[in-house]
DNA sequence: GTCATGTATCAA
DNA sequence: TGATACATGACC
């Protein structure tokens, strides 16, 4: 076409900008308009932009592919989400500069999910897509994804036998139904195998599955079990730990629909899978499921959103149970997949609690019961020791109930010995403080003690091989009947056949942490450690028997029920919806005065720890969650349009 | 980053 | 009045 032809595209009354070199391009004859998600960090530009499809790129500009465009003067990456005949945009359309690759990496499902995730967590679509779609690897793309060729093995449910409703759950998946359940796993029945069996059943029904595990350590084990149960090539691994090429290869296999199962860490929750039939998550209380980058979404919630959108089955699994999982059971959305009490009691170790008294001939600082239990044991021993450096909160000196703010139930802190007691969320002063449970006026700040050194244990148990796991050196597996492992929570190594004795040291330290989820989080780590014990063997817990009933009875569901009640009373997630906004004090102060949903509680602002920023907490009933997120998105858009630095907005953060 | 548009400023 | 300069805001 001539230059005159180009000018005809310009609406009357507008002067055509002189075309830059190479910009004068003929538009495609069919559907010359492409709708794009442009990769910009600016919240007010979180919408689609239309560009002209040059005829030379006609074949390659397909929905889902990556392109380069000139956006606000600079070359920018973008995803094509569709093409059409015309645009609602008034002005001239800039052309797509080039197609990075015609590979449709952004599937329609991922686009819709990304939009929903951005909306719910008050973030932007490009932020989510940057997390969801791994960087391109041209070499990987050139090769076709290989679908599995081995015959699919028959549906099995052997691992599910101890759970009365387990085989039914698997059978329903195999039949193409979409059952939803929260599952209380038991020691000695490999959860990876049980989940793999559920996934196999799903694949039998012609559908796919997404399975999330907390970290790379779990991934290696689950990968091996999945390979065994599903057969070769039926699943791919997707985690940040994989090399870029492997990660992109796995992603493409899912996006192309070549492989039905994606297994991975939190980022896998966003991975494309064709005909989704099941989402599963193991140990959903692990905080590695909380994405540390904007928009700070949580893998469990993402998976639940996907299941709801696609009518897929759900398996929220763990030795422990979160209040979030329990709320799914309480609402009836998920079934409660538990073993009968007898089976449960038999599977877990026998838990005895000791107050930690050190008299009676035991070596210094080693509780007598621990000393005798380890001495009497004939197999591997696990000693879980709390990590140092917890930020601790105040509790009643007399009844040990955590001290909470009367106004908002937030944790109380005291800056110095003579300083006022204030709430860390809303800043309300609580001085003079009295305990709501027992009326005492005495506060205590739990003091974090020194970790017992490995040398002390080695001296106390000369016949043992003492090893440590935690911090920067985490052991995956240990061997030998004489091994004694000192591990921090979450770093416990596996041992073939399980530990003969499990010791949980100084449990009060974990309970003194300054966090809403102290009880849930501490119990999760204790249950996970107990699960490594041999069947019906011993566990010794050092702590106050009063607060450890759920642990003694190994009753994760009971604990979750109690925890959920507390969340109801305190309007915390999952019952309420919380937003935590951080920014410069004057900006946050202005936000506090805005009009929020009528039922909203505005807590703060208070100074954010370790920074000069201020923090505002907004708490609304769950039904107002979407409105709150939309309002916060509008605030973000307002600021980015005014070229102001972004605020940090987190919805239902796991910790803050 | 860059472009279009709006508003201020000044010489003719 | 019109040319020019500079600020603004949108970004296709």
Based on CA atoms alone, the radius of gyration comes out at 28 Å
How much helix, percentage-wise, in residues? 25-40%
Please describe the biggest sheet, giving its number of strands, its sense, and whether it closes into a barrel: 7 strands, parallel
> DSSP strand (E) fraction?
15-25%
Supply the number of helical segments.
Answer: 19
**Distance between termini?**
60 Å
Q: Averaging pLDDT over every residue, what do you get?
A: 90
Low-confidence stretches: 1-23
- Characterize the overall form: globular
Within the largest sheet, what's the order of strands? Answer: 8-9-7-10-11-6-12
Q: Could you tell me the number of beta strands?
A: 28
Determine the structural class based on helices, strands and strand pairing. Answer: alpha/beta
């Amino acid at each position: 076409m001539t230059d005159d032809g180009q000018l005809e595209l310009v609406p009357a009354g507008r002067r055509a900008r002189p075309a830059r070199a190479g910009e004068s391009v003929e538009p495609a004859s069919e559907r010359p308009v492409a709708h794009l998600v442009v990769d910009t960090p600016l919240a007010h530009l979180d919408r689609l932009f239309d560009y002209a499809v040059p005829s030379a790129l006609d074949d390659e500009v397909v929905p889902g592919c990556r392109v380069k465009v000139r956006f606000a003067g600079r070359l920018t990456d973008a995803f094509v989400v569709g093409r059409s005949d015309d645009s609602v945009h008034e002005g001239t359309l800039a052309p797509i500069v080039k197609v990075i690759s015609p590979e449709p990496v952004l599937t329609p499902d991922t686009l819709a999910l990304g939009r929903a995730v951005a909306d719910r967590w008050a973030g932007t679509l490009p932020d989510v897509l940057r997390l969801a779609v791994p960087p391109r690897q041209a070499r990987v793309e050139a090769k076709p994804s290989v679908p599995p060729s081995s015959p699919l093995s028959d549906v099995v449910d052997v691992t599910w036998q101890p759970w009365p409703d387990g085989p039914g759950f698997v059978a329903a998946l195999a039949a193409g139904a979409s059952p939803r359940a929260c599952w209380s796993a038991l020691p000695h029945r490999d959860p990876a195998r049980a989940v793999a069996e559920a996934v196999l059943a799903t694949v039998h029904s012609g559908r796919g599955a997404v399975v999330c595990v907390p970290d790379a350590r779990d991934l290696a084990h689950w990968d091996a079990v999945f390979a065994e149960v599903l057969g070769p090539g039926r699943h791919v691994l997707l985690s940040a730990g994989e090399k870029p090429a492997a990660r992109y290869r796995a992603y493409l296999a899912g996006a192309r629909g070549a492989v039905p199962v994606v297994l991975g860490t939190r980022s896998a929750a966003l991975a494309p899978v064709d005909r989704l039939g099941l989402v599963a998550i193991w140990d959903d209380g692990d905080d590695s499921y909380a994405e540390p980058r904007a928009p700070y979404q949580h893998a469990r919630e993402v998976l639940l959103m996907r299941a709801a959108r696609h009518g897929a089955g759900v398996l929220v699994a763990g030795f422990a149970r979160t209040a979030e999982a329990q709320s799914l059971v309480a609402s009836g959305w998920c079934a409660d997949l538990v073993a009968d009490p007898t089976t449960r009691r038999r599977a877990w170790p026998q838990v005895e609690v000791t107050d930690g008294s050190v008299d009676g001939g035991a070596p210094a600082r080693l509780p007598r019961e621990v000393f005798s239990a380890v001495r009497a044991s004939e197999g591997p021993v696990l000693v879980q020791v709390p990590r140092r450096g917890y930020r601790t909160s105040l509790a009643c000196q007399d009844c040990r109930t955590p001290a909470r703010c009367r106004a908002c139930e937030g944790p109380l802190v005291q800056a110095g010995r003579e300083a006022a007691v204030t709430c860390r969320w809303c800043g309300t002063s609580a001085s003079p403080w009295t305990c709501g449970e027992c009326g005492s006026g005495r506060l205590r700040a739990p003091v974090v003690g020194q970790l017992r050194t490995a040398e002390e244990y080695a001296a106390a148990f000369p016949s043992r091989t003492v090893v440590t796991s935690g911090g920067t050196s985490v052991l995956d597996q240990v061997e030998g009947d004489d091994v004694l492992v000192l591990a921090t929570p979450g770093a416990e190594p596996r041992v073939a056949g399980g530990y003969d004795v499990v010791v949980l040291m100084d449990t009060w330290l974990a309970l003194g942490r300054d966090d809403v989820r102290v009880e849930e989080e501490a119990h999760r780590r204790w249950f996970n450690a107990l699960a490594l014990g041999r069947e019906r063997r011993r566990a010794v817990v050092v702590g106050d028997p009063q607060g450890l009933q759920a642990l003694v009875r190994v009753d994760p569901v009971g604990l979750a029920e109690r925890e959920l009640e507390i969340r109801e009373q305190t309007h915390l997630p999952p019952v309420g919806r919380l937003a935590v906004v951080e920014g410069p004090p004057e900006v946050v102060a202005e936000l506090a005065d805005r009009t929020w949903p009528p039922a909203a509680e505005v807590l703060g602002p208070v100074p954010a720890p370790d920074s000069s920023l201020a923090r505002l907490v907004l708490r609304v009933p769950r039904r107002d969650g979407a409105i709150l997120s939309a309002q916060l998105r509008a605030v973000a858009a307002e600021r980015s349009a005014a070229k102001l630095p972004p605020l940090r907005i987190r919805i239902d953060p796991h910790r803050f």
